[in-house]
Amino acid sequence: MVREVVGRELKLEVGSWKLEVSRFRVLVPLAVALPGLVVALLTGVSGVGALIADRPLVLAPVPRNVAEAAGNRDVADVVVMAPSSDMNRPMPARIPLRMRNEALLTPLEAAVISERAYMIRLVRDHGARLGPDQLRTLRCIAEARKDRGTIAYLAGMDPTPPSCSGVSIPQ
Amino acid sequence: MKPSTAAWLLTALFAIAISASVFRIPIQVSDSAEIIEAVDRAPSMTAAFSEGLYASRTMLRPMRQVGTKILLDAAHRIGDRYNLVFRGFHAATAGLLIVLFTYVARPHDWSAVAALCFAMLVLTGLHTFTGMVREAYPINHFLLIAIYSLAVFAIAGSRRGLAADIAACALFAVAALTLESGLVVLAVAIAAHVSGLRGISRGAIVAMAVIAAGYVLLRVPVLHMVGNAVGERQTGFGTDMLTTSQLHERFGETPWLLYAYTIICSVLTVPLSQPIAGQWTALQPWDRLAPPLFYLNDIGTSLAATGVIVWYMARRRAPDGRRRCLDPAPLVMLTVLAGSALLSYAYAKSEIMSAAGVFYALVVYYATREFIEVLPYHAGSGFSRTIAIVAVLFVTSAWGWRAIGLQYRLQRGAFEARSEWVLRMPPYSSPPVPAADMRVTPRLQDEALHRGRTNPYLLWPWYARLWGEN
Prior knowledge:
The structure holds two protein chains of two kinds. By secondary structure, chain A is mainly α.
């Protein structure tokens, strides 16, 4: 009796792994086709969005403001957005490559966080003012990030070592 | 719904996806603005053609100038809308390649449609495809060569006739004068004929050989052109990318060594996804903080697809017992692979192997179609059938990831091309052409800056490690 029950249970368990041949014939082409179908639908629909509105639905985020553009090395968007933006006002910016969280940054601060010296020059060329206080803040941010390119670029404007006490560094 | 209707719907989706992303990439500063300005100064098509004849000592590509001139004239006629015409042309040709692929594959049953779904992932996910759609010079001639090759293969499989012969000869002539790699179009026609396709007559193949002889005559005795030599362009060797001076230093006395290495690496890059441009990038020391994980997926998926191809090519056809490797698509793939590798003897470049990559995907289609038919007869127990399904889904999903990676790289391409219009222009760099010669460039810059906005740095940073940046 016990053997019969155990035997039946084992059989049932093995039976749950069984894949009928007829079902297998259907599942093989489905397994081959499914990822292709998903990719076709996802990217195809996204492509329609791109053609109609110049906005793909996937993998094409855009900066919300000029600080976010500066922080994410987007020189083209800085040039395009600068004429209609206040280049000295702090704005909420996401910089996933450099910061975990969104922070309130001026375009110049974001440019330093991008760790690209050309971005600092570009932002200044497009209207950002750089007084002694702002320069000190930028130099402290660059020092905190230990980025040699931006440190050297900013030191070119003021070679004296910066005093960073009381300067808040965006993380 | 009929299987063929489903196949064409699928093709349309893939074509739209690729074309739309290609269209968003602005005309580039590098390799494009200078050529556009030079061709714009040519007074006529004939002048552009003859300018192309004498543009280089190693490259005979006058059809590149002619194509650029045709597109420039079209752009001028509609109010100097350069991006619309040049990028529209690139997007349309990218879509055409995908449509031609399905036309050649001719999927008529559901197994074939399933195989096409997978083959499209291989076609667009393979690294050799990226070069055809990401860059433009300003016309991507590697993409054109792949289209000409596929078109000649389609003609070879069509009904024989004078129109087919004329079309094949014309496509070969245009391909040869577009890019040196265009010579593989003749190899496609010959291999297709040898494998039994009779759409192109023997007379037409002789005519194509005569055109090839004329091409050689034009290159050597008439224009005194020479082939590429060691150190004309950087290329990979082992795990290093060697500069031109390093190449001179290491291979100046033994160029054959570099040539043999480069040819072998070019053959390997299509079925293995390594090396890239002669460089075994996957074997370089990995950055622990930012490991380039995409290598694992690229090599693993390529090994799986190549495994299916090897299995298929070793099989025999039922009616006459001939090995599958002598069938039209496999034989043409092997020929294009070998021909393209030979043409890239002096330096390796993924783009040169792009036509071979297209035929590789085509053979994957035929192999997968047969695999779907055969597998149910060989997957023994219920458990092994379950394992087989999981394995198939795993491999196809990994290829799906690679195919989506193309979209990521295209968006990245759009971002970089757009950024170039600031960073490679005054006051940040010297302009691509002297300011006095700029007729088109300011308008190109304006168009580039005001379209195709995207920023890959706003995405999850790990995408770059999972898909690669280029």
